[in-house]
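Subject: complex prediction, re-run

Hi both,

The earlier run crashed halfway through, so I resubmitted it with identical inputs.
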Amino acid sequence: GQQLNQSPQSMFIQEGEDVSMNCTSSSIFNTWLWYKQDPGEGPVLLIALYKAGELTSNGRLTAQFGITRKDSFLNISASIPSDVGIYFCAGQTNSGYALNFGKGTSLLVTP
Amino acid sequence: KAGVTQTPRYLIKTRGQQVTLSCSPISGHRSVSWYQQTPGQGLQFLFEYFSETQRNKGNFPGRFSGRQFSNSRSEMNVSTLELGDSALYLCASRTSGGSGELFFGEGSRLTVL
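This time it finished cleanly. Structure:
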């Protein structure tokens, strides 16, 4: 499947800081999803995006579906220690049912 | 509402053996997908089932197979295990046929010795 380019690969920040990560693809997607995975657990859905330009928030998290439909970003405001984990973007094309995942952004937050 | 349930959570096998993993989707979800997660390759799509039919398949060898039952529960099987099959196998379900949010289980951690 299509591999998404997710960056940064890892982030080490202090509590209270804002965080931004993004995903890009050479293919057009009709759905973008953002997941968080804690060690030993399955990914948990954070935000789903369905329209180009769409901006959606979930608490301190905000995600946007890029206008070109080839990118998406996730922002976390005022980070807290429980934000620690790996964040994955995932995209779905019109032609298939499978999700294509990025390699993940590992987030570490220090108190 | 119960989430996606996967069993077993952990298992250890030796090369050449086979393994069967089980997944119970969220009630009302008819689509079940399987993904393999490894540190090197990340999350890779194995296959998806909808109404007991395999609708889509990823780029994995024929040793990987699956099925779905009439109650939407699904199993995947890996035969002739290789060391490289060690991974976290994730099952996910969703409501609609082709799109929509995918909800993951906690995974089955397979170690092949």
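Chain A has a mean pLDDT of 93.

- K.
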